[in-house]
Structures are given as C-alpha cells and as structure tokens.
Design a protein that fits this description.
The protein is of the alpha/beta class and about 220 residues long. The chain contains 6 helices and 9 strands; from the N terminus they run βαβββαβαβαβαββα. The structure holds 6-{[3-(dimethylamino)benzyl]amino}pyridine-3-carboxamide.
C-alpha cells in the first residue's frame, strides 16, 4: 500500500519511522511518501496561504499550491482523503475499508483550512479522528495511517495478531498479565496459570464481555 501525504510539516510524520510501522516500511509492506506542499509554491517567498475572502481571522491555504502538490502524486486509482474535524468519524470499520486501497493520498490542512475550490475538485472523502480541533491535520493523518498499516497482512506477526485486539468482534480486549505470577502479593488470575487452553479462552471471552458491558455498553447496543 502506498501513502502520499500532502503536508506543510513533513517532519511531524517522524513518529511513523518507529516500532511496528517503521519495520513495515523496511519490509516494504508499505510506502509512505511525504510531499511538502511548500515545494509547490511559485512565490519567491514560498508563500502558501492568504487572507480569507469576506474577512475573518486566520489564513487559508491557496488553491494553486495545493493543486500542484496533488498533481505531483495523483494516479487513476488513488483515493484522496482530507483530514478535517468536519469529516466522517474514523472507526475500526472505516479503517478496514481504507486498508483495502492500493493508494491513499492524504491531505493535511493548516491555518483555517484549504480553499474550498480545490477540495471540491480533488477530495473523495473527509475523515475526522474525533470531535476535537488540532493545529493541523498531520497528527490526525498519522493516527489514521497507523490504524490502517497495523492491519495490513504481515505487519503484525500472526502470534500477536491484530485480529485478537480490542474492537475485533466489537468487544474490548481481555486483561493481560506477565511474569512474575505474584508481584507484591498482587496475583495473576489462577486460570491463566492452569494451562487449560479451552477454559482460558472461555474466561477471556467472559472478561471481554464484562469489560465491554461496564466500560462501553454502546458497543453492545445497550
Ligand atoms: C481543516 C483534523 C483542517 C479544517 C484536522 C482544521 C482536527 C482533525 C484543520 C479545520 C484538524 C480531526 C475548520 C478548524 C486542521 N483538527 N478531528 N485541524 N478547521 O480529525
């Protein structure tokens, strides 16, 4: 899967070079290409924004600069996503849907947003990671990319499968424990030390259901 990220702050995606996502890049399971929108300014001062028509506060990213950045990466099969608090809220279902794409172009806005004309022409979907406002779309794009990449086959090894995590089957994950079995008298549940695989699975499912009912009853439709 290929990601092209259009941004004024490519350094903000350094976090995707770490850990599991960094390894997925090295293994060439994914390619994350960062495009600095500023490189497409024709202005001698590399200006990328201007004051809004009609007045008001803040600055608006100019249509020509954003459009040329887009043209530098566009392909027939690419899906263009704009990160905005006005978008459809991201959930695991949406993540699974996006993970089926070959090529995502992610547009990150700063200032008060991007000139609407270029958005109307190029954006296929507006996505929000939640109901709050960030200084730019970059952190939202990094969150979305991480969620997509981790479910791509081969990114997470089969044993620590992404499929057993929270939100698979719409349930919260069961609690987990590691050695020592007794820390300061705080004991790991006996069942997990029993070696009785079927009983353990049953216990974990029951824990999942209990937690979901207590913490996220909305997931059970309650
Ligand atoms: C577009 C996404 C982009 C418009 C982006 C702000 C939160 C999210 C931005 C605005 C973002 C999110 C109208 C404030 C950049 N903040 N929740 N900030 N407006 O996904």
């Amino acid at each position: 899967m290929k990601f092209d990220v259009l941004t004024l702050f490519p350094d903000m995606f350094e976090c995707l070079n770490q850990s599991i996502i960094g390894r997925a890049k090295e293994k060439e399971l994914i390619d994350i290409n960062l495009i600095n929108i500023r490189d497409f300014s024709n202005n001698k001062h590399k200006k990328v924004d201007d004051t809004p028509y009609g007045g008001g506060s803040g600055m608006v990213m100019m249509p020509d600069v954003v459009y040329r950045a887009y043209e530098s990466v566009k392909t027939k099969d690419a899906k263009v996503i704009y990160m905005t608090p006005q978008g459809k809220k991201l959930d695991q279902k949406k993540v699974e849907d996006l993970a089926k794409q070959n090529h995502l172009i992610i547009l990150c806005g700063h200032y008060e947003g991007i000139d609407q004309r270029v958005l109307d022409k190029i954006v296929d979907e507006e996505v929000s990671i939640g109901d709050y406002v960030l200084t730019g779309g970059e952190l939202a794009a990094a969150v979305m990319a991480d969620a997509i990449v981790r479910i791509i086959p081969g990114v997470i090894s089969d044993e620590q499968s992404a499929l057993s995590d929270s939100f698979q089957d719409n349930l919260l994950a069961a609690p987990v424990y590691t050695r020592p079995a007794d820390y300061k008298g705080w004991k790991v549940p006996d069942i997990l030390l029993s070696g009785h695989e079927a009983k353990i699975k049953e216990w974990e499912l029951q824990q999942s259901l209990e937690r979901t009912r207590k913490l996220r009853p909305d997931l059970l439709g309650e």
